[in-house]
Automatic annotation (TrEMBL):
Gene3D superfamilies: Jelly Rolls. This is acireductone dioxygenase (Fe(2+)-requiring). It is an enzyme of class 1 (oxidoreductase). PANTHER family: ACIREDUCTONE DIOXYGENASE. It catalyses: 1,2-dihydroxy-5-(methylsulfanyl)pent-1-en-3-one + O2 = 4-methylsulfanyl-2-oxobutanoate + formate + 2 H(+). Its EC number is 1.13.11.54. Keywords: Amino-acid biosynthesis, Dioxygenase, Iron, Metal-binding, Methionine biosynthesis, Nickel, Oxidoreductase. It comes from Elysia chlorotica.
Length: 128
């Protein structure tokens, strides 16, 4: 899959509130609705949680994830990752390129980002 989709960079992330200042900061960032300029994939290794994405009408779709699940998040799609009551989620995050840019662009400022405009044109330009 890495070769097929051009993923050259991957890292393993563990989210668990109270595990340290850096982890708590990452959890806060993951819980804020954001998009990325490039596609990313996430494969759940341990624990469970939720990924929320927006549908065509801007409603949230909540996706429960558990070990073995994989999500591919297109560039420009607003999403967020939320821990469940078990407070543990470990996943592999994959991006294209050897030195990926996984900068989060937060809603609503990211509405003007070129990746968001491309996403809207490609997937959302039709009425609800």
């Amino acid at each position: 899959m890495k070769e097929l989709r051009g993923y050259c960079f991957d890292e393993v992330i563990t989210l668990s509130k109270g595990a340290g200042e850096d982890v708590d900061k990452m959890i806060e960032e993951e819980e804020r609705e954001h998009l990325h300029e490039y596609e990313e994939a996430r494969i759940v290794l341990e624990g469970s949680g939720y990924f929320d994405v927006r549908d065509r009408c801007e409603n949230f779709i909540r996706i429960e994830v558990k070990p073995g699940d994989m999500l591919i998040i297109p560039a420009g799609l607003y999403h967020r990752c939320v821990l469940d009551e078990k407070n543990n989620l470990k996943f592999r995050r994959l991006f294209p390129g050897l030195c990926p840019d996984w900068t989060p662009y937060y809603k609503p400022d990211a509405d003007k980002h070129p990746a968001r405009k491309r996403y809207v044109t490609r997937y959302l330009d039709c009425p609800c």
